Amino acid sequence: MAVATTILGPARFAIGASSPGTEYTDQVISVSVVKSREALDQSSFGDTGRQMTGGLTNVEVTASFLANDTVLNAIAALVGTRCYVAVRRSTGAISTSNVEYQVTGAYLESVDVVNASVGELQEFEISLSGGTLVEDTTP
Questions:
Q1: Total H helices, total E strands in the chain
Q2: Most exposed: 4, 38, 43, 97, by fewest CB within 10 Å?
Q3: The domain containing residue 121 runs over which residues?
Q4: Separation of alpha carbons 78 and 107, rounded Å
């Protein structure tokens, strides 16, 4: 049985205090967007096992960057704020096969302003949590 595979080209990544944010496509080396819902226990005395229901939706965005002073300073300025983030699998037009995941109000708690090893390119990672996720398919 054949398995469908997606090979990512240059994915689009933008972040800022508000939409549309600043694009860092040429600096981001990996990105993930995770959508989840809290599991709430709705079990009652008559149940023979736990019964769960979905609670509030949560969004986690993680991105790894190649560091340079300009990018690092711009991202560090967003620490402690709620940000807008946009992620797309490709830099091509938004479509049903190239959905843009837009998160409004994602909280950036921290960034490593120094993360270096001898003989390696400096990289840093950010993690944002919360906010409202929109899956845009309209060009």
A1: 1, 8
A2: 4
A3: 12-39+51-136
A4: 9
